[in-house]
Every structure is written in structure tokens, then in C-alpha cells.
């Protein structure tokens, strides 16, 4: 993985806005009206080429495929980053409503509550329950599967299309380095387990299945980004609020499963994404970065992506004044955010980059986004944010390398 040796490199967290024709094609396929598979994959190939070209043209140094192979049926969709895996794993019953998901089994005195049993939702129940609030997530919108049988990886066709499309797009655009996203085992396993003897056994099965995807991405010469918001976000699903030390012990179960899944893979080909969930809620019950950063650093990878631009976490850049970043590691802090429609000014982008560069060193900072922009903000706004990111990184580079 490259570092910022001559200038501040730019990247992002993964999801980018899908073009309307791809959204329409995904929706038709989900309704059994997709028509010819060959025509769809040609469409996906062309869309991937276009999104990589567009990233390159605005100054994104390390692009991805926009997660276009991760099915999204509508322009606003917060769940495609992990929901894509439901079609790539066997043993899941996709008809299970999220409201029926039971709490996860207790471990070490801590029990992860149902996904809708969040402390933030309880604190702001009126806002979350208002269909016009912008953060409403009613039962008709929330459906995830339950595990009802042995979990195996069955997504080989879709995965190989993602890899082939990305590599072809990079070659055409003249891109040196690119990445593909994959959901981490702990976050993928955040559903009801009705088959395995324990939730740890269930997570281990998903880890072994998803390993096939992780290996294929790395062996294809691409960077693997592992998306694992549950590591920080799970804190909000535990009632009553636990001690941070107890939660860290609990969260290490997911890190251990992940490290087992990427065993033997070169850390320098892997980056890890941590966040507190990309929905546009108050987030007043988020776990402080200081209380989870050392768990994050246990992942056997080279680079760490995390939220650092939104109003709940921007102040936490100073964590790196206390916590030493290991000498062989890189950070991809969020410099622009998915959580607001306001497009960050390039000078603000520059200031944010400089904070991190002055603490950990300019060579070990890649400017990125808090979370994926696709599905969270309007496409026109998302691309404007990436343009501002690139502009601010260029200003910061002139200042940091003068």
C-alpha cells in the first residue's frame, strides 16, 4: 500500500452514488425482471469503468469501484455495505424482519441488544419514530436475514465480476492502486443465529466463508478494505451501558474472528474501516474514539480508516497525541463527512489534514471520507465533497512539502 511520500494521497470509505440506470437494473433483478445476465454484467462493467475514471479525474489517488457490485436498489440506502453479503452466503433466510431479531447471546456479562434497541434511539425516540424526521427507520424498511443453516460462500460469480471490472477500469484510467470493500465477519454476523450452538461459532463460520472473498481480492493485486462498524457501533446496542474496559474485551471477539479470517494475507494489502454507523441520527451515545482505538489497532492490517469529520467525532483527532500509531501503520481519517449536505470548504479540508499530519507525520496520512457517500447524500453533493477533498489535499500538500 502506498503512503503519502510526495503529496497527501486521497481516497474514500467505499460507497459512491450509483447511476440511475444501474439502480433501475438492480431493482428489476430483485423483482425477477432482470432479463439477460450478460447484458447486466456488461452494464455493471461500463458503470465501474466510468466511476473509476471519474474518481481519477477529480484527484482521488486510491479509488474503488464505488461498491457498484454491492446491490443497491434506491439512491438512498444505508445498508448495501453489508447487505450485499446476504446473497453471497448460504444458510440465511432473507425473510426475517429486523424487528424480530433477538439480542445476541451474553458473553462476559455483556449482551448485545437487538439492532433497534439502541440507547440513541431510546433517548431520541420521538425523532426516530417520526417518518418525516429524516432518521426514521420503520419496520417496513428494516429486513435482514437470520442464519438457519450452514454458512458457506456462494458469491464467486459476483466477486469475480467485481474484481475483473475494477482491474479493467484501473487499467483504462491509468490508476496505480485501487481497493475493493468487503464486510468483516463480526459486522456480517449481526443477525439472529438459529443454527449454530453459539454466536461465537456463528461468527467463526462467517469468518471462514468470507475468507474466500478476502483472499480473492488480495490475490488479484487489489487492496482489501474490511468494513467493520460493529466494533465501535455495537457499544450503543448494550443496555445498560457497560464499562469501556468490559466492552473492549467483548469487541475483541470480532477482531479475533477477523484476524483469523485474514491469516496469512499480507497486512500491507489490507485496510480496516471503523465507524459509528452512517445513519444521520444524533449519535450522542457513541463510544469515544479513545475507548476503542487500541482495539482497532489489533487488526492485522496496514491502514486504518475512521470517522473524523462529523460533528460528534471531529474533536477526536487529538487521540493520536496520546496513542502512538505503530511505525508501520497508515491512517485514513475522515476529512469530509457523509453526515451533512454542507460541502466542506477546501481550506477546512486542509486544516483537518494538517492536524493529523502534524501528529503522526505527513507520510502516514491519506485523506478520506467518514463513511461511504453513496446512499447517504445526493449524488451531486457526494461528488462535490470528493472534489473539495482533492482540492484541500492539494493545498495541504503544498504546505506540508514546501
Given as residue ranges, the uncertain stretches (5+ residues, pLDDT < 50) are none
CATH class category label: Alpha Beta
Class computed from helices, strands and strand pairing: alpha/beta
Rg to the nearest angstrom? 20 Å
Average pLDDT level: 93
User: Kindly, what is the distance between the CA atoms of the first and last residues, rounded to a whole number of angstroms?
Assistant: 24 Å
Count up the helices.
14
Proportion of strand residues: 5-15%
**Percent helix:** 25-40%
Largest sheet at a glance?
7 strands, parallel
Q: If you consult CATH, what is the topology?
A: TIM Barrel
**Strand tally:** 9
Provide the succession of SSEs: EHHHEHHEHEHHEHHEHEHEHEH
CATH architecture: Alpha-Beta Barrel
Spatially, the strands of the biggest sheet line up as 1-9-8-7-6-5-4
What is the total number of structural domains?
Answer: 1
Q: Quick one: overall form?
A: globular
How would you describe this structure to a colleague?
The strands form 2 sheets. The protein has a 7-stranded parallel beta sheet with strand order 1-9-8-7-6-5-4. A two-stranded antiparallel ribbon has the order 2-3. It has a single domain, classed as Alpha-Beta Barrel (TIM Barrel), CATH 3.20.20.210. With 402 residues, it is α/β, with parallel strands linked by helices. The chain is built from 14 helices and 9 strands. Helix 2 packs across helix 6, helix 8 packs across helix 10 and helix 13 (346-360) packs across helix 14. The protein has helices at 20-30, 37-58, 80-83, 119-123, 125-128, 156-173, 185-188, 199-219, 230-233, 244-261, 293-296, 319-322, 346-360, 379-400, and strands at 9-10, 92-93, 146-147, 179-183, 223-227, 270-274, 303-306, 330-336, 366-369.
Amino acid at each position: 500500500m502506498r503512503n503519502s511520500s510526495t503529496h497527501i494521497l486521497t481516497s474514500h470509505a467505499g460507497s459512491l452514488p450509483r447511476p440511475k440506470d444501474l439502480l433501475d437494473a438492480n431493482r428489476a433483478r430483485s423483482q425477477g425482471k432482470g432479463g439477460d445476465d450478460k447484458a447486466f454484467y456488461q452494464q455493471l462493467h461500463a458503470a465501474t469503468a466510468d466511476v473509476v475514471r471519474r474518481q481519477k479525474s477529480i484527484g482521488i489517488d486510491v479509488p474503488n469501484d464505488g461498491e457498484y457490485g454491492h446491490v443497491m436498489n434506491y439512491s438512498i440506502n444505508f445498508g448495501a455495505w453489508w447487505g450485499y453479503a446476504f446473497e453471497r452466503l448460504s444458510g440465511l433466510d432473507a425473510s426475517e424482519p429486523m424487528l424480530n431479531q433477538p439480542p445476541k447471546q451474553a458473553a462476559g456479562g455483556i449482551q448485545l441488544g437487538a439492532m433497534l434497541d439502541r440507547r440513541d434511539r431510546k433517548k431520541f425516540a420521538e425523532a426516530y419514530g417520526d417518518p418525516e424526521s429524516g432518521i426514521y427507520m420503520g419496520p417496513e424498511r428494516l429486513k435482514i436475514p437470520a442464519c438457519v443453516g450452514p454458512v458457506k460462500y456462494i458469491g464467486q460469480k459476483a466477486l469475480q465480476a467485481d474484481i475483473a471490472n475494477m482491474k479493467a477500469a484501473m487499467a483504462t484510467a491509468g490508476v496505480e492502486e485501487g481497493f475493493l470493500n468487503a464486510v468483516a465477519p463480526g459486522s456480517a454476523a449481526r443477525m439472529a443465529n438459529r443454527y449454530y450452538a453459539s454466536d461465537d461459532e456463528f461468527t467463526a463460520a462467517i469468518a471462514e466463508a468470507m475468507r474466500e472473498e478476502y483472499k480473492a481480492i488480495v490475490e488479484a493485486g487489489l487492496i482489501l478494505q474490511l468494513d467493520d462498524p460493529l466494533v465501535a457501533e455495537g457499544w450503543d446496542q448494550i443496555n445498560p451501558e457497560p464499562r469501556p474496559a468490559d466492552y473492549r474485551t467483548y469487541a475483541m471477539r470480532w477482531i479475533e474472528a477477523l484476524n483469523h479470517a485474514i491469516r496469512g494475507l499480507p497486512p500491507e494489502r489490507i485496510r480496516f474501516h471503523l465507524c459509528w454507523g452512517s445513519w444521520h441520527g444524533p449519535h450522542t451515545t457513541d463510544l469515544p474514539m479513545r475507548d476503542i482505538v487500541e482495539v482497532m489497532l489489533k487488526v492485522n492490517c496496514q491502514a486504518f480508516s475512521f470517522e473524523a469529520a462529523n460533528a460528534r467525532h471531529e474533536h477526536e483527532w487529538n487521540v493520536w497525541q496520546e496513542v502512538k500509531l505503530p511505525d508501520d501503520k497508515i491512517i485514513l481519517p475522515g476529512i469530509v463527512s457523509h453526515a451533512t449536505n454542507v460541502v466542506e470548504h477546501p481550506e477546512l479540508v486542509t486544516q483537518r489534514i494538517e492536524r493529523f499530519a502534524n501528529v503522526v507525520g505527513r507520510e502516514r496520512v491519506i485523506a478520506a471520507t467518514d463513511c461511504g457517500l453513496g446512499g447517504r447524500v445526493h449524488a451531486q453533493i457526494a461528488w462535490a465533497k470528493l472534489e473539495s477533498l482533492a482540492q484541500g489535499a492539494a493545498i495541504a500538500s503544498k504546505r506540508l512539502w514546501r
